[in-house]
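Go through this one:
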Amino acid sequence: MRVTSELEQLDSQWLRWAGSEGNGNDLADRLAECFGRLTARAQLSLKLRFSEGASREHIAKELGITEHGAKNLMQRAKAQLKQCLDEKLNRE
């Protein structure tokens, strides 16, 4: 039952973000474009965190930085993604 609940939450969040008529392709393309603008280190940190579920400690070791540095890097990267997406969506 936990998986069902998580899927329902994901669907609900997607509808809030993409809208009920959005198929997501345009948004996914924009996200990919914005992601490509990040530095290689920022991209790797987010991939490790969100694709592999890596801990901040693991990410820090992979990048040769402190845990605090990893946290800051990911926060900046997420902020850059948000700003880029906001700009792209507001142009419409």
About this structure: DSSP finds five helices and no strands in the chain. The two ends are 39 Å apart (CA to CA). Residues 15 and 22 are 8 Å apart (CA to CA). The chain has a mean pLDDT of 83.
